[in-house]
Amino acid sequence: MLPDAMMDDEDNLMDSSVRLCVFEFLNRTILGNASIYKEEFFLRRLHGLLADFIILHPTKVRELRRAADEAARTIQAYTQEGLEPPSNLQYHFESFLRSIGRLHERDPLGLQLALDYWPRSALPDVRHGTAAHILSSAHLLGSSDGRGALWRFVRQCGWGDSPHPLPPALFVPYLQMLRGLSSTPRAAAQCFAFLRQQSLQPSPVLIPESSRGDTSTIGGMGPVPSSPISWDHFFRSLHRYLCNLRVELPPTDTVYSQRSTGGAGVPLISRGITPLELEGLHCVLSLLTTIAEQDEASRLALAENPTWGAIPSLLGLVTCPVPIPLKARLVHALAALATPSLSASERSVESSVTTLVWHHLEASQILLTVPTTSCYQPRGVQTELEEVESRNEEYPLTRAMMHLLDALTGPVGPLSSSSTKVSTVPPLLGMGTRVPGLDPYLNYVIHSVFLPYSSRSYRSMEEKWLVCRLCLRLFLKFLRQYEPSSEDFTTRVVEVREGNSNVTGSTIVTTTTVAPPPGFHLMIQLHSKSELLRIILNIIDEVAGCLEESGPGTPDGKRERRLMEGCALGCLRVLRRALMLQGRFTALLSASSEDPLLLTGLDRLLLAANPRSGKHDHLLNIARYVSHAGWLPKHAPAALGILALATACPRSPSSAAQVHLLSLLTSSPQATAQVRHAFVECMEAEEDENAEFEEDKDIGPDEGDEEDGTVFGDSLLEISEGSSPNSSEPFKGLSIRGRAKEMVLRLLLQWLPQTPAPNLAHFFLGFHLSKDLRKTVFQQPGILGFPRTCLHALLALLDRGLANNPQATSPSVTQSAVLDITALRPRAPHSALLDLGYRLLYALCADPRTSEPVLRFLRSSSSAGGVAGGHYLTRHLLSIPIITVREVSGGALQKRCEVNALGQTSWLLRTVAVELKALAANRHHLQLTTLLRTLLSTPTVPRAQALGNTMRTVGPGWPSRAADVSELSVDGNRLGGEEEGKDEETTLQLSRSHLLPVGSLPPSGARPHDRLLIRVLEALNFSPEQTPSPNWEFFEPSQIQQVLRQCEVSVAPGGDSWPHVAPSCPALRLVNLDSLRRTLMDELQSIQVSQRQAIVTEMKEVLKYSKQHNHRKARAWGVVRCMEGWCQVTEVLFATTPSEALAPSLHLQLLLDVLQVVLKKTLATDVTSDLATLCSGVILLLLVNLRNLHLVAVREARLRCLPQKVGAGQTPMPGSQADTPVTTHIPGRNAASHGAEATLQANSAALKVILSGILQWIVSSAPPSQKLRINLYGALLNFLHVTCTEGDEWNIGIPSGVNFSNVSLSDSLRNTFLSPGYSSANRVKSQPTEEERSQRQACLEVMVGFGEGLVDVLCHDSTSGHDVCKMLALSCLETLVVLDTSTGPATTLSLLCSRGFLCHLVDSLLASDRTLQGVLEEDEGYAGGGEYSSGGTDLRPLYVYESKMAALCRIARSSRNGAEALLERKVMGCLSAMKVFDARPDGPFWTHADGTLNGEFVPPVAGRYLQIWLPALHLCDALLISLGSRNESCASQVAHFLVSHSEAVGAALRGAGAPRSGSTSQGHLQEIASLTGVVALAARHPGIIGPDEGAVPADPLWRVRKLMFSLLPRFLLPEDVPGAKTVSIQADEETGLCSLQVAAHLLLYVRRLSVPDGAVGETGGAADPRECRIVFSPSLSGAELVPSGDPRGTRTSAGRNIPVRTGGIGTSGPPLGLLVARLVSAVGLDASLAAAESQLYGQLASVPDMNSQELREFLPQGALMTAASMEAARAQAARYLGRRLQQTIRRRELLWFLADHCLLLLWVHLDHFLLRSFIPGDRGRPMSMNSTSRDHASWSVDVEEISRLKSGLVSVFNDGFCKRLIDTRQEVKDRGFVEALVRRIKRLIQFVPIS
After folding, report:
1. Which end of the chain has fewer CB atoms < 10 Å from its terminal CB, N or C?
2. Is 751 in contact with 761 (CB distance < 8 Å)?
3. Cα dihedral 1266, 1270, 1276, 1281 in deg (nearest 10)
4. Taking Cα atoms as reference points, which of 1136, 1062, 1129, 1117 lies closest to residue 877?
């Protein structure tokens, strides 16, 4: 502190300070330090000191002013005498004024301290702090008196109340003070108003001496202003200087003209400007520039005032011979006046000002735009650059011209929310004198300024980089304003309408050529090997080298280095923008009709050699800028954008660029470590404030012109509260370092799926490039020398988002007053960055090349403070983003974060789904159970408290490792199913409980909704938000909606560029608010001025509504994305989790819970179509899993009851016992499956709810999408399979193809002519239990409860809509009919008949005849084997036809009423009229007829024909079975069908009997089996069996009968007969089964011919031989038969030729030897099949105990056996053995059927031949047949042949054979039929004499 004496002598202290030049010291030393302006304390303190001096010492201020006036008069006097002023003059007042101005000229902190010097305004004081005088010792500073004193000081210094005018010596300091006090917009407005009001005495300043004698007028501008400090005086002075300095051009221009004179002998320069005047002009122009830049209203007033004429005066002075610095200052002032406004309300005024400046600039020709040879052109800026500035090595005018062009061409780009990319250049600039456009100005910038800049000399190197940066700023602006158009590549001609001065009201139309925009020329040069591109790349290389040499902390040349860095930034941004436009530009260039330019492309030029280094290292130089992101944060996003675009250009081989860059990065260890570490640093940088440049705008553009972030084109628009409604700002609030992180993440996402591998993404993520990527083992940084990579940075980034989660913080910690831990945490990452991070993590886990090592590292990763071995995904699941946002945030924060939180949750859930699949496949039960516990557990304590407690112990959100896998329980029981099933009641109780954390008790009232998996679903809001449309006054709502649709752009993909992350939801389209704003502004131009303000207000409402519309759509799209992830987790969890990790009973219970929740949530609201499709898809897959669980449970339950059958004389399998249930061999699985079955039965109410929900959704979803209906119908079918349908026993869990012939044969055996011994009681068949019947009845009641609406929907969808939807609707409809028929009255069938659906369905078959014929057309691309080229036949009509026929077959089989209903609707008549059945293909097609059966996607033509032909035969079979063979109407219609298509029937039968058919395909055999089955069932019809007199060769039925008999030798003769050409029934089981079916149908047909109606009773009693026809000849010679295709119909034997006649069949009949051979073969084959059946029973029972070696026998060849696939291998082996067992049982049944029919036919014929064919005693003479024969025909028999027949049969039917034959039926309860026939046959051949 100062001594008291000194304080008392205050005046002396003040005088001493002034004498010691305190103000000069303050101005030069203190205020010259830039650090002063960064501290508020310093600024306020200095402001208070100066203000205190003015307020508290007014007398001292007046003394200083008087001293200054005296000094000024002294200087003036000495000057008039031509003497130098004295050196001891004092300039304290001047220094005081300059100090005030310099202190306030910059206001970086926004304190607005300069407002204290101006009078109070009506506007509120918005300055920082409570008062401006907070640090002032004068209490009057904040009062009216204090501010009045300051304001009086300002006025009196200039003119005001002072008795003396302002002397010229104080003019410059005073203006400097005014310029400093105008540093803020409000202060600038005050200063402008002050200068406008000054009008007192005439001014002696700034008036040329030649005119000072007469000050009344100046150049006709009116009276001279009375004050030298006023706008009138400033502009009048400028105009006077212009009039005195302007050079008039002579009227002619010849070489003889006087060069030294003007037009009338006036000297070229009449006089110059004094230094004092020059300094005053500089100050005036600086003040004008400051006010114009700070206040928009003042700028417009200055530019538009016609009295002042600011623009013409300033531009005119530039053409005058004045010093270069003054010209630069004039151009700067013009730039300030021409700077366009960003306010939409002033856009039209701004346009007029800018246009005015352009026209004056064009007229002044300061930049020569019109070529001329005149020598009297004024000296332009180009001349000054080449002649003056280059010589002086200073370029102020050039820099000023760059600023002017920058101001005149509009904003750089999206500077703010309201900016546009539209240029402010007049479209026809220069029209009339040259080609309109900016070409001359662009050529000046490129060729005169930028290209030679590096070769010029500079006094200061800072100016070199400053000139370069200004040029790059213009280039970047032109490129950002340029959008490629097809008009740019052609000659653009526009029409101009001008008024005709001669004729009133008429216009003159002229055409002119317009030059393309400047961006076009820049694109041409940047995409070719030009000098411009070379210099840009050189700058990038040079600056990169300087940065690496100097480093960030180099103090020398700080400003120069910043300028150099700005140039590099400009070059990077120019290249990035050029690459962004390259795709569309080159596409339009290639499509142009004129001669196209040959451009190399910037992406290819970046791969060229660098002249500076001789290497191809341009991309490496660009990548090096990423390493400087620590102190150059703006360079990193630009460099990363170039790398992304260069390696992903659509026309460039991106793989080549990527391989090239990868080779550069791996060429040296230094480059590898530097660039990889740079990427890691970018991802780990702290997101602090934006790193802005510290210098003024001369360095470069503001960072507000950052690109819109759409480099990759797929950014999600994040619209936050309070942000501008600009759709081009996807990451609002993201800092510069955050933008770099975003670019790195997007770059890795782009590179990851590219080929070849390894690629750049693998390099930066740390994979080993020298070996297989899957073998990479990630370690923590530093362990085993492993570096820190982008993968570690990615996990740390996501962990930081988790650590900053408010839920992961303990309340006791956050509320601690001792230490605020949250303040020490790093800044939380932006939510959009977390979204990208989770997306990249999913991409790594989903890529097969990187999935295994990344997932392995995630399983071993642990959180900070956690325990090693913790699963990374588990921690993030515990704080899943969508639940966190909803539970923690609220209001604006929730709305701002919810869209990105939805994306984060989506990618996290997708990643968890991949991990679940991998863990289940690799059988990592510990990790799998941990994830399951996290997903399925319910919290027992409040979430925040639980997470806080957990964090205090082992880390945030991570459970203690003390929980062993054995403790992962449900109410204390394990998740796995090994120990379940001990007690059924306990199992059911556990299945209804919920997962809890270890050691906790179940909370009271715990619900399934408390599980994390279901909580995520509950957190999603399915209700679509409705944005209420306001009542527009001026805009039509429909037109607004149309405009919104037109302005929509895609900001996020529906199908991403990366296949492994492709979402299924459609692309997100949002309204581009910039485009909408431009559209509305264009509409505003046509509105009357009186309504303008009201329309502008309503426009703001439209923009606000559009912003809300974007919010709603973005949120809905995010919900769809999140729902996709949830669906994946749910589907994978239930589909892949093994029973060891999740017990079947709990699995089933969880399925039911999730199904109910999804249905309830979906039906509760009106969901969108995308969400409905996703929900229906997950319901479908869950029901498929439910069906699989049910099938497994039923299969294992039946395996428990399966007897261990062992054939007689065979040894049981080791470890098995005969007739012992398999239960003892599957100890661990029986209880689990039993618990699953019990759980399903105990949840019958839940099943009814699920069924009701599905049906309600089907009925109420109108108008639905076809995919939605397909999913719902598929779900309904799977549900009905679980609850209502009766499956085949051995098909439980065994997939098999559709085999209609099996159904026809089994049904025919059950319904027609079965012997008593062939009973179906012992067939493997399960009858529904009472519970199953009640369940079916309950389901039917639910379905019937929906009334006729359900049937109407099914009928509608089965006749219209998508083909797949038709097929599924038909399947649902037929299932409903069958269920309704089996449980009660057929109400559904009645509805179908009454509503005409059956008629429509039948008629549609005939309508599809033509399309089906087109299906059978041969494809041109057919190559055999089911291979087709693209563009083949449309097969959809074929599949729809199959579905229709399947539905008709089910209806026909359902009941007799169903079959009759079909016949009444003339279904057989429609089939008879269809021509497609006659289009049977011939030739080599039948060699590929098995295409469909073998699983080929596109069946061959023969396979397609079978798909059409077989269903028709199956329908005939179903009708005959349902109505019975004695239904004449049905039989006649079927016979008519066969006759109508007799050619197809005959071709099929002939093909089966031909010799070449020895290799008949399985498909052909199925056709023969079905066809022979239909013929056999219809054989009772009189048209097929009639009198011999009606049988003629021309009769189609006669030919059918003949062909049927021709098949007997082929299918009845065993393969072991010498010379037999038969189908082997042992080579292939499927083929052998089909052959047995054909043989059975043939014997059934022969029996029905031979044994007429009434011959065999209903009970299968013995036949009356007298009522039977004779079909076979009495011969046992089977091998001597002529091939069955021989048309002669004779046979050759060792004896004579004996003609034989049969009942209308032909001239000879087949021998009885066929029956005998078939019988003997059947007995032998049955024995082998019995042994095989017993072995299969044992093998099937021991499948659970088989090891891998034993299982390999039943798996496909080459199948890999791993620990993960053992369970699947056992299931596959069980299915294989079950299928073989089923086929074996069916073959044995067929063999029994064949044996029964052979015995019956053999007994009938032996009875006839031995008892009735001849008279005993007449040997060797033909005998006539007994007259009791029904056909009254005669047979000629040979007694010797009868003897041979008898002796042969005696040798066959010996005791051993008869015993074996009878023993084949030991498992049949009633085998008396076989015993009786055997007994009668033996009696005939042993006791009946023939002589």
Report:
1. N
2. yes
3. 160
4. 1129
pLDDT at 839: 92
Amino acid at 421: K
- Which CB contacts under 8 angstroms, 24+ apart, belong to 1555-1558? 1555/1621, 1555/1683, 1555/1685, 1557/1610, 1558/1621, 1558/1623
- Is residue 1065 a contact partner of residue 1117, using CB atoms and an 8 Å limit? yes
Residue 1392 has pLDDT above 50, yes or no: yes
- pLDDT per residue as tens digits for the range 123-181: 455 444 434 443 344 444 445 567 788 988 888 887 644 555 678 888 899 999 999 99
Model pTM score: 0.80
Return the closest-CA partner of residue 1715 out of 1742, 1758, 1750, 1678. 1678
Question: How far apart are alpha carbons 221 and 240 in whole angstroms?
Answer: 9
Output the CA angle 1464-1469-1474, nearest 5 degrees: 145
Tell me the C-alpha distance between 983 and 1646, whole Å.
58
The DSSP symbol for 667 reads: S
Cβ-contact 24, 97 below 8 angstroms: no
Phi/psi for 822 (5° steps) reads: -60, -30
DSSP one-letter code for 786 = P
Contact 733, 720 (CB under 8 A): yes
Burial of residue 1355 (CB within 10 Å: 0-12, 13-18, 19+) is: buried
Amino acid residing at 1627: A
For β-strands 1068-1071 and 969-970, DSSP reports them as unpaired
Q: H or E element: which one contains 162?
A: none
Residue type, 1783: Q
Tokens of 346: 């002033």
Nearest to 1875 by CA among 1809, 1803, 1812: 1803
Q: Would you state the pLDDT for residue 1836?
A: 60
- Say which residue the tokens 């040879």 belong to: 373
Closest CA to 789 of 763, 769, 759: 763
C-alpha span between 1417 and 1421 (Å, rounded)? 12
3-class DSSP assignment, residue 493: strand
Query: How far is C-alpha 881 from the chain's CA centre?
Result: 20
Other beta carbons within 10 Å of 785: 7
Distance CA 1804, CA 1801 (A): 5
pLDDT score at 144: 57
Rounded Cα gap, residues 1166 and 1172, in angstroms: 9
Tell me the two tokens of residue 139. Answer: 């209490």
Token pair 């009885």 is found at 1712
**Is the predicted pLDDT of residue 693 greater than 60, yes or no?**
no
Q: Provide the 8-state DSSP code for 937.
A: B
DSSP labels, 1195-1231? HHHHHHT------TT-PPPTT--TT--GGGG-HHHHH
Q: What are the start-end ranges of the H helices in 1682-1752? A: 1713-1741, 1748-1751
pLDDT in tens, 1706-1726: 446 788 888 888 888 888 888
The secondary structure of residue 1051, as a DSSP letter, is E
| Whole-number average pLDDT of the chain | 74
**Integer Cα distance of 459 and 467 in angstroms:** 13
Q: Is 1048 helix (H, G, I), strand (E, B) or coil?
A: strand
Residues 6+ apart with CB under 8 A from 1827: none
Question: Apex CA 292: angle with CA 288 and CA 297, to 5°?
Answer: 130
| Rg, Å, the chain Cα set | 50
Q: What's the rounded Cα separation, in Å, for the pair 1822 and 558?
A: 133
β-strand partners of 509: 497
**Cα angle for residues 1082, 1087, 1088 (degrees, 5° grid):** 150
Residue 1380 near residue 1387, CB atoms below 8 Å: yes
CA 1025 → CA 885, 1022, 1106, 1114, 1122, distances in Å?
A: 18, 9, 14, 11, 17
- On whether the CB atoms of residues 112 and 47 are closer than 8 A, the answer is no
Dist. CA 1087–CA 1084, nearest whole Å? 5
